[in-house]
């Protein structure tokens, strides 16, 4: 143990940009300042992260937002009870299609403007045209079945009248292989985090058609998943880590630090990609197709808009999508498991000594904030939202049965 | 019931390791072993092979894709699940430590799978040990080379005998509590920075 370290924490992460807050907590000294010796292990699959958490190699890890829910609901092997006391950021993903699919979409009115309603409508028209001609369904890839990517892709398609279970095929491809799979024609499109969308644009083999921040503004993506047994045995270590992550996230958000952050992430032990490739996610300025460029507000937020608060409404929305796509049955028991997975209480109690602004509620009505809205107590400033879904739907976690029923009927109508 | 031999599929990008496992399984009497290094087109291969047990190295970045395929693909006639023996946490830990995971078709009895997993684990460990020893031998050779160069520099610049040069390196290493090869490397680097390169 290093001099002065009172807590030793071992964490796993995937080489993706949204591990930045965890990586910077270790590399920029935020963990050490909280008395933590943080050991980070780079992993090659989410399955490995799940396994190593379960057998105790890792105390906690960078995880896909729905992954801890899938563990607790028994959807994965070797599952161990996992809780989420911290979110690693909002947004960051895009949907990219091949040049051929883009040409077909453009013929049906798609514009390089990322507008999910317009591009989705054009994609639907292309899909029906192909079906009429007897061609194979388009194949889209996501990174994991229990991922924000899978659920937001399906949400977008379904809201545009496309049945993702019947009219397209969805397969799993690891993020670094997406661009190659698209170029080789093994897939027609994909939903993944940056820089794997810009990678296809740079190679001249793909077009970005929409982004997560436009499908559902300020929506959850990666989280810190913690083995519950470890959290219960080490409450002080966890609280110290949450404070370190808070300081790290604030540092990551500040544009003055983006150069240094990109240099840290560029190291082979972390993301291992040149700083220039990381700029789109840091600036929100995307090259869509080698011609059109667009700057997206709130493209990826590692800290602002209470990005680190583990909203129960985020977990519950993931749960509704697991139900919607047949991953889990909607029962009172399963709902209770989903409700207990994200732990805003732990976040709040760890950060309380810092005197920073904290949301007062554990859940919010998603899609209700049309503009950025100041909330919280006087003196401490906290701005939330906007948090709208592109189709204008509202998710009220207190009306979860109605939401699930509404999505079911929408699916049978289309 | 007729006891048929199990069809085992080994998915490993490391060809040498895969062949070591394959050999081990064959020695243990498993005739139906298939090795795949590249996962492209794997759904079709699985449909052909109809494996009872699938062994995958944990470094394989396609594990998430494979797990999803085992559950959903039309290529898989019976669901395939990860081998998890709740009563035997130690063997799961040993497998993850060794860097291997196993998947089995629905309904296969645990005791028939366990020897295959144990075999894979021991062969994975043997391979890691071999790779480590090879790496040690390589770095041993490297440090011997750098010590020779450092001795050469000392002999030339200070007019020492080979033995005296080595003794000086050893004494310096002991005084600084560092390895001789580290001291030698520092000397070679410093000499390269300071003077006309000794070799050029």
User: What is the helical fraction of chain A, as a range of percent?
Assistant: 40-55%
How many E strands of chain A?
16
Structural classification of chain B: alpha/beta
**Number of separate domains of chain B:** 2
Output the CATH class name of the largest domain in chain B: Alpha Beta
| Strand tally of chain B | 5
User: Whole-Å distance between the termini of chain A?
Assistant: 60 Å
CATH class of the domain at 7-88 and 221-281 and 302-347 in chain A: Alpha Beta
Helical fraction of chain B: 55-70%
Q: What value does the Rg of chain A take, in angstroms?
A: 20 Å
- Uncertain segments of chain B are none
CATH topology of the largest domain in chain B: D-Maltodextrin-Binding Protein, domain 2
CATH architecture of the largest domain in chain B: 3-Layer(aba) Sandwich
Mean pLDDT of chain B: 88
Structure characterization notes:
The complex is a heterodimer of chains A (414) and B (200). Chain A is of the alpha/beta class and 414 residues long. Chain A has a domain of 189 residues: Periplasmic binding protein-like II (D-Maltodextrin-Binding Protein, domain 2, 3-Layer(aba) Sandwich). Chain A is built from 18 helices and 16 strands. In chain A, the strands form five sheets. Chain A has a five-stranded mixed beta sheet with strand order 2-1-3-11-4, with helices on both faces. A five-stranded mixed beta sheet of chain A has the order 8-7-9-6-10. In chain A, strand 7, helix 7 and strand 8 form a beta-alpha-beta unit. In chain A, helix 15 packs antiparallel against helix 16 and helix 15 packs parallel to helix 18. Chain A is globular. With 200 residues, chain B is an alpha/beta fold. Chain B folds into two domains: 125 residues, D-Maltodextrin-Binding Protein, domain 2 (3-Layer(aba) Sandwich), CATH 3.40.190; 59 residues, Orthogonal Bundle (Arc Repressor Mutant, subunit A), CATH 1.10.10.10. Helices cover 60% and strands 11% of the residues of chain B. Chain B has a five-stranded mixed beta sheet with strand order 2-1-3-5-4, sandwiched between helices. In chain B, strand 1, helix 1 and strand 2 form a beta-alpha-beta unit. Chain B is elongated, with a radius of gyration of 26 Å. The model of chain B has no long low-confidence stretch (mean pLDDT 88). Classes of the chains: A alpha/beta (414), B alpha/beta (200). At the A-B interface, helix 3 of A face helix 3 and helix 4 of B. Chain A: It comes from Mesorhizobium helmanticense. Chain A: Its main location: membrane. Chain A: It is found in: Endomembrane system. Chain A: InterPro entries: NrtA/CpmA_ABC-bd_dom (IPR044527). Chain A: One of its GO terms (cellular component) is endomembrane system. Chain B: Pfam families: ANTAR, Response_reg.
